[in-house]
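FIELD: query
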Amino acid sequence: MIWNGPADRRVVALTFDDGPKIDGSPEILDILYKYGVKATFFVVGGEAAQNPDVVFRMYDYGHDVGNHFHSNRRLNEIPYNEAVSGIDRTTETILSIIGERPKYFRPPGGKCPPTLARHINGEGMEIIGWTINAEDYTEFSEGFEIEKNYIEASNVLKEKVLSEVQPGAIILLHNGSKQTVLALPEIIEALRRSGYGFVTMSDLMNGGSL
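FIELD: result
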């Protein structure tokens, strides 16, 4: 599993898991478009099948679209044949939407048994982990989903990313979190002030060229 890119250039790869979601994904795409930032989206096959227009928009905007299994179930908790079926099914879903097979796979939870890793590699995908987990998936209890909470959570995740960033970092974020939508512009602006550029996983693995 790849946990970071080359450290010889001041670039990072923003990656977003668990999409495409109607709540969250379009807003993130709008922000990335506004700032001219390319990223990588690891899409869930079941979500992609329901929201193909969002997946195509990711691809059309120049982002990488990767495989994040057919559901959020952990690969080490399900039978091998079921896991292979979910992986391949998601690849076929992505292919049917964007006309290309995904080059990258991120296992839910970051765990991938060796037998499945061999299958994934055999399907032409590299397995991607992360350097920084922004931990932006905080859920608030019903009745406490107020703006102040989201603002506070967005500040926490922004500071986590900025305090841990390093050249070649792969930054793990999520599609459906309001705090991510709030924090993303500030993260982009702060990293740019620090001299960082933004690349897709494809660019990062090819030397991090902008």
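FIELD: remark
The first helix runs from residue 25 to 35.
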